[in-house]
Bifunctional protein FolD (Leptospirillum ferrooxidans), 285 residues
Amino acid sequence: MATILNGKELAATLRAEQTEEIRKLAPLAGRPPGLGVILVGDDPASHAYVKNKRNACKEAGIHAPEINLPHDTTRETVMEWVDKLNADPRIDGILVQLPLPPHIPKDDILLRIDPEKDVDGFHPINVGRLVIGEDTLVPCTPTGVMTLLSRYGIPVKGKKAVVLGRSLIVGKPMALLLLAADATVTICHSKTANLSEETRQADILVAALGKPLMITKDFVKKGAVVIDVGISRNDKGKLVGDVDFDSVEPIASAITPVPGGVGPMTIATLLENTLKAYKKRNHLS
Ligand SMILES: Nc1nc(=O)c2c([nH]1)NC[C@@H]1CN(c3ccc(C(=O)N[C@@H](CCC(=O)O)C(=O)O)cc3)C=[N+]21
């Protein structure tokens, strides 16, 4: 029987801690923290995520103006909104919801965000700082995974970690964070040969490939800690991860469910990053 790593419950605990901290800091700063969210187009999944973020911010006392732009918005208009949020003294964090429509070059937009307000940690300056090992804003999903591991007392130092996936948003920063925590890290991806041989070495296995239910017990060593970052919808519209939970749970020592695992931790970390940027900008500790 594996320990179920309850991200939903832990995220609620973290948000309560953040709410308390904001209540204490706002009078010192003379204002609450601010997170500006830019959403382009009408992708229903993106709108649902942004709604979750808005509710979490509201609950915690974060000022969170939302810029909703139509699908046919130009690159220049999005740039102007980023500039406006960069210059706004009440804004500590900026999030441009991804994916953007194909006619808007993502890299140009992310490069425009003030790195000190880059609560997603996607700006090349922040990616570089993470590689160097400086304290900086780090992408929310992998940071949330590290928080989940540490709050459940799961040791990382000296362990063999295998990360499945090499995206800018999850795989690469996940590998760097595990490395910084002294794990021995392997990154696997779609071209990896003998994938299950690699994954069966893992003490900690992080699945972020976007292939629903692909990871069965054949990919997992007995007693491994299994973290599922996948979020896909099946034909019934139900949320499923990259891990076949029913197959893997009996042999894992700990495992995250989907939903209720990594997803809620992502949002709690977005608030944490906003708070971090706010404290730095206001010289509060
Ligand atoms: N600039 C940017 N930053 C992001 O961090 C970002 C993004 N764009 N685009 C989309 C992805 C996806 N993402 C999720 C956040 C929360 C849940 C989450 O809370 N999931 C719940 C379930 C939600 C549901 O039921 O739909 C759970 O897993 O329990 C999932 C996915 C952030 N992303």
User: Anything to note?
Assistant: Residues 48-49, 52, 95-98, 120, 140, 231, 239, 258-260, 263-264, 266-267 surround 5,10-Methenyltetrahydrofolate (CB under 6 Å). The chain has a mean pLDDT of 97. The chain has two domains: 32-115, 140-262. The first strand starts at residue 3 and ends at 4.
